[in-house]
User: Fold these one by one.
Assistant:
Number 1:
Amino acid sequence: MKEITADQLRKLYIDFFVSKGHKQISGASLIPENDPTVLFTTAGMHPLVPYILGAEHPAGKRLCDYQKCIRTGDIDSVGDPHHLTFFEMLGNWSLGDYFKHDMIAYSFEFLTKVLEIPVDRLSVTVFEGDDEVPRDTEAADRWAELGIDRSHIYFMPREDNWWGPAGETGPCGPDSEMFFDTGRPACGPDCKPGCKCGKYFEIWNDVFMQYRKEKDGTFHEMERKCIDTGMGIERTVAVLQGKKSVYETEVFQPIIHEIEELSGKKYGENAEDDISIRIISDHIRTSVFILGDQKGMAPSNVGQGYILRRLIRRAVRHGKKIGIDHPFLSGLSDVVIKLYGEPYPELVEHTAFIHEELEKEEEKFSVALTKGEKEFEKMIPNLMKGNSRVISGRLAFKLYDTYGFPIELTMELAAEHGFTVDEKGFHEAFEKHQALSRAGAEKEFKGGLADHSEQTTALHTATHLLHAALRKVLGTHVGQKGSNITAERLRFDFTHPAPMTKEEIQQVEDLVNDAIKRDLPVTVETMTLDEARKAGAIAFFDSKYGEKVTVYTIGDFSKEVCGGPHVTHTGDMGHFHILKEQSSSAGVRRIKAVLEK
């Protein structure tokens, strides 16, 4: 079995699928385009949803890439040996071309021939079927035909081996997951892939999008079937290197060595210190990728900026826990940039911004901690008047939620005044807060571009008209920094140094509405990014040289590189109205607008 690095795995994967007729495409921004369902790009397929749903991709029907991803649901689990917020995902796609028979053969060949994993160390899971969709015997038979022993093929229920749809309706289907047997003893007679004991390590997933879920809940087989796969680089490299944890690989070791230098602690000697070192390592890596993204954003109190602020402050807090008593994240970021500068040159390009924002946020957090201490000191006289010498969990959580004041510091200060803290109450308040956040995210997930509704399609086209109008009124320095579309409204972030005047807002509205009234045709062409720029198209992202892109032209008004979808002409879009113009972050403004029928 090959013991390979992350850089080698990235290259081996791309080279393998290019040899199978796939075109390598550029990975997308971490900030999703026009998608309110998630804060960050969560998987390689996320930016490709429009093409999986039927749009023609400019690079063709066979694609592969490596994609930077962030998943925020487990932030508070980071610190154990396995959880990460940022990770890289390798993926390949067939958009109505080859299907299950070929994909399983590709997976088997890559795992056993390229990575040289012994066949007897592999196990796979397939969909067991239910009342709505039959058992996936086709996938099971194909694995067996290629050489996987039937005893290593497991039929699993929908919650384990089914993907989608992205919205209420749309493409979905069974998947087949591949697991590496670590050689650890089974935890019992029911031990199988998916078991939490650590014997089986998932390394790859093939999704077979062969059904469409309808509004009535039924599933129909589609003529145009698609393949979507995902392999996590960090996890796979850890397996191939025989490591117990991703933190033991070369992806994290340089970061950990620098933290050891800064703190005087040694990784592997103290369990509590190890948790802090892992948290700092993960969070600085993720923070650098958010700040250094093509659409890089600064810390703030909302959305992606809030997650970034949380990550930075949690890293600083754990730095203090292990004895780092000075600002350190800016220097530590250089280790991450050096590690990833080649595959992700945008990090090098945005080095100054990364340094500046990390330094500012560390300073702000220092001020916030001082405020938290003062707030605590203000509370003490009232607490002393009572009979109890226990600070409630609700109060401790308020200090944490409002000032980012760590529970450990609250306990420390409390002890100095003869108090204890209701830790159980704090964790209950914390859990309640997390549950509300998750519920909000699930509610948000129901909307979005994924369903390609008439409303979201019209609003997507409206963002192009808005973008062009802003550049006409404010100047060509205006560039899109992000957009978010639901069926009800659009939200558009753009670069501009000052609030817009009432007159400027009215001018922009009038220009957009005039373009709508003129019933302009919306046309689409495929060309290279260089050709698109020469043709006058707006394009605010980097693409590999010679890579094909789609350019949407709206009459004589707008020409922009985009993945779609759009209306065919503007006349039926409705009346465009700006609800609000406000600051999003330093140098970035935000517009919320609607289309009124």
Number 2:
Amino acid sequence: MKKTLIPLLFAFFCNIAIYGQTIDDYCNEWEEALLENINNADQLKVCWKFIKHAKPPCKIDIYIELGIVHYYEQQIDSSFFYFDKAIALGKKINEEELLSSAYSNKAYFLIEEDEDDKAKPFLKKARNLLKRYPTSPKWRDYLEARENIAIKALDYDAGMSYQDSILKIIKANNLNNDLPQYYHQIGYYQIKTSDYKSAIINFLQAIELKKKYNVLDDVSSSNFLLANCYSRLSQNETACIYYKEAIQNAKDEGNDFNVMLSYLRLGKSQRLLKQYKEASKAIEAASNIAKALNTTSQYAESLIEKGLLSYVYFKDNTKAEAHFKEAINTAKDALTLFYANQSLITLYFNTNSYSKAKPYLLNLKTLNKAVKTDYHTMSFHRDYATYLENTGQNEAAILNLKKYYKLKDSISSIDLKKEVADLEKKYDTKNKELEIANLNQEKNVQEKQIQEANFKRNLYLFSALLLAFLLLLGLWIYSKLRKQKKALAESNIKLAETNAIKNRLFSIISHDLRGMLIPFQRTGRIIKHHIDKNNTERAVEIATELDKNSQSLSSMLDNLLNWSLNQMNGYAPNPTQISINTELKNIIEGYKQQAIYKNTTINILTKEDITTYIDEGAFHVIFRNLIGNALKFTDNGTIRIDFKNQHNRLYFSVADTGVGMNETQVEKLFSLDDKKSTVGTQGEKGIGLGLNLVYRFVEMNKGTISVSSKERLGTKFEITFPILEALQDSNSKSLSA
């Protein structure tokens, strides 16, 4: 009997161990899948995929997550249905910590629904269970629910106190991924108490930690609130940068609500910077999203901004007044009503309609008590002082004006703005250091993978040859820089300045060359993956594509080098006598093979030659880019180059029969803002520097450039230069062609 019992007991305990490990592994896999799918719809799919085979403890966590996601999808009944399923299962298997989490989460969302009385019994049950587990991570769910009650009561000091308790739980359980949310929440409370300096510190810390720990599911909120801080400090240019970051983050997250909020605030900052057209586009985008989401408060905010634009930009007071009144009738929350009333009051002040402003000032006074922030109290006293002064109540006006300046001095000062600017600079440096550390870490991983490779050495040799090509390319750049150094050394004037320029240039090129190497290194890792899977055909395909892409690298580096020189004030025109016909033929010769490949002819229409004075290097940069760009977008066609001397100016044109452009593309052609590379007819790629470089060199040589284009008909560039009669100062710097 004993001999039979011992093996059975051994098997029983082994099964228990395997069962526990399975639960942990399965739940970890589920949590990782959640992190990879950050929008609500995808998270629901992940939960339903894993719940089918989940063991009871893991299933409780999944039920809780289903409740949370359904709530954010505004499916309230479904949300509480899953919280109740989690509670029932927790009771059944007597999992006290998980049960406490189910209680706390249900309480949290009951509070969100203004059901505080229903929430309190669940909080009490959660606390009684957690008393047995003083360092349990589930305390966080309980504390967040209590914090939610404090927030709704506008008790921000209590909210920060709960966050400090949450921080202790995070540290006790090494939950580093939760640190960013702590700093984010503290920053939120500091905004509410008008401590913008401290708020900026915490939001920058939150963003930095989210990048460090790859917690990218809600970066948009941190960037949005950080932008709000700069906006409150009247640093609207910086605010716009972070609002645009928040918009892109929110789009990546699939968070339409945050996209809408960020567009609203971006439009406001752009309006204050007098960028009225951009502001109008941003507000219209926010208004459309608000209608789609049926969010009355944000729609009311868009009406306020439309009213301000109508007044400031379109000079239409009647339309502005109508927008403000519609916003007052639409808004539901105190904060939006405050801004709507304040905007209408400002309009009446500016039109000397003080009697019309009075009832809205009374509304503002009541709303200020509901909002309860120093910033809004300050703006109320400013408006009230203006009204009293213009209605003959001078003593009362002075009293309110004193209150306004007292609050203003406590919120914003010159020293504070300087500290904030220094802080942002420090953050940018840290961020770059973090990126370098990540690159080095990637490099180490790649080197380890190469060392472990033990077969298909012919393909690895191909990868090594590609890397050797890049190394030779780097040596070529270094050689070119040495030649420039030698040329600069021949000039005895300002030797120290030219050395400084060379050092900065080499630093930029070295940095960007590293950035160019990264795609090739990562492609090597992909090649290894397919080799490991014995997928030789796919590996060869990728290697062939890698070889094709590398051929555009040389041209891109040339543009980057010249552009870097221009950015560092390392260029000044040095006209020399050249033959236009000869130089154009030399340039065209470099594109001969590519033209044959694309079955396109390049013709110089002018038969006679013209000799003139112009910077030869700039001339080559301009026409290399124009001809190369025309060839990029032309198949089976013609490129025509013409030039003439007319009215003491040189006229050039480069016309192609390629794919052409629409009006929007033409308008943004020479700009680097939001620039995206356009793929050529044969898949050619670039980085968007070429035409901007052309524009800069034409301008620096006192020329003009224009472009006309129609889709499917082709594009024509027209350039003019003044005719120079003599060489300029021989000491001027010259760009090597």
Number 3:
Amino acid sequence: MVHNRLSENYALLKGFVKNTPLEPGVYIWRDSENRIIYVGKARALRNRLNSYFAITKNVKTAALIRNSKTIETIIVSNEYEALLLENTLIKQHSPKYNINLKDGKTYPVVRITADKFGRVFRTRRIVEDGSLYFGPFPNVQALDKTLALIEKTFTLRKCRTFKPRKSPCLYYHIGRCLAPCCGKVEEDAYNIQVERIRKLLAGETSALIIDLTGQMHEAARSLKYEEAASIRNTIHAIESLSETNSVEDMDSESRDYIAWASEGIFTTFSVISMRGGRMTGQELFSSRSAAEEHESIMTFLVAYYSPDRIPPPKVFISHGFAGPGTGSETGSDAEDDNSALNRYFQEQFGQIPEFIMPDDSERRHAAALAMAAHNAREELRRRLKERGVGPALDELKQVLSLSSRPECIEGFDISHLEGKHPVASLISFRNGNPDRKNYRHFKLKTVIGKIDDYAALREAVQRRYSRQIRENKELPDLILIDGGLGQVNAVKTVLAELGVDCDLASLAKREEEIWLPHAKTPIKLPERSEALKVLQYIRDETHRFATALNTNLRSKELCFPILESVDGIGPKRAATLMKHYGSLEKIAAAEAEEIAEKCSLKISAAKAARAAARLALEDRLAKKDRLNAKFAAKKASEEAALAAEAFAAEDKIDY
């Protein structure tokens, strides 16, 4: 019995790992009493967690799996954030299978002292004296380069204690200090430099990077390559230092970040808590609700905050919330809801938290909310995958009045460029998931050089199902066409001729209308309908698959590599050029200004593209001339040989 329970738990843990994303983050193992027993970090969560279930497990790993009940993951932006969060969680929870870090080591921060004529330096110790702190910075090398830049660029005092002096020190004479101790600079002028350093450390670096980039290019033009390389390294250090860190900062004010993801009636909420400048963890909550988004959020806030979970002074909310303090315009119903929410918080907690929806300019808060939203989406994706698409297929059968549950669905789409390279894609879905081994492409033969989607669909469908019938293979439960009533009726005619009795529908892109054969009106499903989501997934996959082959065929004939060889033009811009002009000849004949305007290119790139097209045409013409010359020489040689043979034969004639 015990062995069976362990085997079952092992399978559950391994099943969870299978659906874990390949992204950086932290993973948390919990025991049967929900206690954290191990915390780890990973560059790719799924790969790292899979390693725990390898055949050759050591004793510690086996014990960890045996004593674990669940695994949680928190996705972050990069490995540094994973390192910081792992460090925080280990110190907070002291998991039994983690190394006990006795030294309590922390990452360095930068301090700007609060005293008169403040100074800037690196430290690991925080003193509550009004000083400004920035960090923490896991990338110590980048931090050192930035501090060296600050020391070189800004002439602040170097002495630890500010004391009036009669004569300045050596730093003043070499231009590395303003000598405030000798009254050589006013406090306001000195503080201007301090403010510039504050902006640099706060990530407001755009103007500085632009200036340094100009200096780097100027040094390179003057052949001062070592100086240019040094400036380049400084720019990289600043960019590395100014990356937004979502798991630790120097803001000690308590705050929560709440985001969510929805699919149909399913919603997952993600709450990230910051306390004392550190992310103390994440909580995920799943619910089923048919309510509108605003109502669902209000219900969650009331349920989440309780006497055991007091709301912090600030709660940052992602999209769609028109609550009190967000500054959003609200109608009378929303205002009534806000009034009730205010009253609830005031009566329950004696305070009303400030609800904030930050914009993109508030980088730190926007980044934290983005991380919360990403985790909510991943949890919702995992939850829906575990649940399966059975209910969605049942809904599809009901709303389309299908003869059976559509467990096998095949979709068709057509792709071409003004009649050139017409291709059809066939994709297969089984139980709501892609069945890629049964994907097919059809290079169409009857519609070359003309645009006729109906004929193209008829050819693809006829070729597909005539072969299926001939080889006695399985037919789908439902065929989905990308298009409207005309397309679905065209396919219905072919199926009738073949004697194929399959359910058939089409999905039109613009209004997401579902058409059945010979219908007078389309079927419109709610935006959150699970059945509609399945059809959209299939339709988008058929389009992607058809476009991929069509693009590949066009690339070979339309000389995309020639355009892509131009600096600043990649596959997408090359495709845009060919879409607008259709041939290298037309690109070569166009004005550079026209190319730049039509294809959203810089004038330099447009000129380069035109030059590349002309050069390719010249090469093509030269190659053609060489072939013609070779052919003419061969023909002349053959004619000369024939003439010689004729002359020799004539000599043999006996007159």
Number 4:
Amino acid sequence: MSNIKVMDENLANKIAAGEVVERCFNVVKELVENSIDASSKTIEVNLLDSGVKEVAVLDDGIGMDREDAKLAFQRHATSKLKTLDDLFHLDSLGFRGEALPSIAAVSLVELKTSKNGVGTYLRINGGVIEEVSSCDLEQGTTIRVQKLFYNTPVRLKYLKNLYAELAVITDYMNKMALSYPNIQFKLTNNDKELLHTQGDGNLLKVIYAIYGVDVAKKMIALNDQDDDYVISGYISYPEMARSSRNVITTLVNGRVIKNNELNRVILDAYHTYIPKDRNPIVVLNIDVDPILIDINIHPQKMDIKFSKFEELKELIYQAISKELKKALLIPHASVRDMRTYYEIEDSLPDVSFSSSSPKEDVITTTEPITEIQFNFEETTQNDIGEEKEEETRIKEMFPIGIVHKTYIIAENDDGMYLIDQHAAAERYNYEKWLEKLREDHHEQTDLLVPLRLEYPKDDYIKILERKDILKDIGIDIEEFGEHSFIVRSHPTWFKEGYEKDAIQKIIEIVLEKGEFQKEKFLDRTAATLACRMSIKANDYISLEEAKKVLDDLRTCENPFTCPHGRPTIIAYSNYELEKMFKRVMD
């Protein structure tokens, strides 16, 4: 008698559910994606106790007739994939036909759907259809999933706490709203509204609904393309950076994905604009011919394989870098009218963002708007054009004092500025020394007394191995005994009196673990030298020296942050100063 048997369909569904349905989030994800594939314009998700008690998803999509409704709960039944060729031209979010039977196998499901004026009701308990009948329903589909994992208690036991479950679901719904600004999304938990978008196609209004007004005012539009990829979306000013990498939302043809390499490219483009442990708020949509990507590599379809991936990474890097270089990124120490602020928070549909005159600092409610526009003083095209004519990104500033031997107070016709003297000097020196390090030939000067450096044997061997790296940047070292080197010459641009410290720091970078990459080595070296050899906080400088620091800062490619991403300058506009002292009233 054969030992191999064909698995019972209900058992197979429960096994599949182990891969497809791990938690409440997976139920929401699969049902919402089905609603999107059904051409819905409105999708509402209602949770009870973060979805543990119930997940209800309502949409106004095309719906199903009775036969399709029953077939939808059979394994590998799908309307989105019919031939092998279709697998390479996918334009839908779902395609495997596993989600609904997997969900139904571990819960109690009620389905109401309507198509062409005919309503169908299904009740499914643990994967078994218990009732099929007629019902009245407007166009669309409603699915209620109750008692999730009631027949798989081990899975139920390992659900995280309700707050953790709700946080994951909310994050997913936020990302879907960013993916499809033309769809109206609504999310509630125990009748409390957590998300409500308008569905009018305005991505900036969705960003406002999710992140709030402060972030929405500090976003930069992104649009670029090459022969294979079109990218669009928004990137935030560096000052809006957050600690969580989850604020980077990457979409491919409307599908939310997680790709560490693309995240790394985005962070590389923000290099020196933000600290290394911070992440910009980014909504990046990548449009590509489906034949150039492979979606079918992850059970939850969260990762994708790309053709011509290097070209895509270069396109993203250059597009973000270009926009950051165009914008004036000086943070403003603005003063907010809190009464008006709360009015804004309570009424998104009636919000109008405008700053056509300097005194329109607060946001007032007007008639419903069709488009949000942000035209702030620091980012207007006229300002940018004027600065390009002067070949600087910020206007000339005149120092008038120094606070705590650290912060330069400066002014010009536009307002008042606070400048961190160390951060400003560090930025200038970083860019200067990075340019020097990148040169093919380095002018050298000999040390009057050769410098002797001693290292443990393992470090000594590594230095020997990478001796040419040091020579390439103008540092000549020679073996001197069993564990020692002597340095006879160094680049002429080393700061006098800091030669030994600079050489030791560079060798420390050479000894760092990991694969050696020349550009990253040069960047790290320039940043380290700039930090060590620039004016420090609490160093006394005269107003003449402060003026040189400000003039040097204006010549920088990025004068807004130090090499580590801290701001160099904060602005107070004339209007903000007058408002603080009640010289103007709203």
